[in-house]
Amino acid sequence: MAKKTVATLQGSSKKLTKAIKMVKSPKTGAYTFVESVMAPELVADFLKKK
């Protein structure tokens, strides 16, 4: 019988945020989506960068 390891992993997990922004390509003019998983404090800096 398999043991449940989910309970032990939940106790040590950090709170993360997934941020998604649209970036316009300089060559084609098409928009692409850039996504990243980070700490909530870093989201504002990620969205300000070009």
TrEMBL record:
- One Pfam family hit: DUF4295
Q: Spell out the protein name for this chain.
A: DUF4295 domain-containing protein
Q: Kindly list the organism's lineage.
A: Bacteria, Pseudomonadati, Bacteroidota, Flavobacteriia, Flavobacteriales
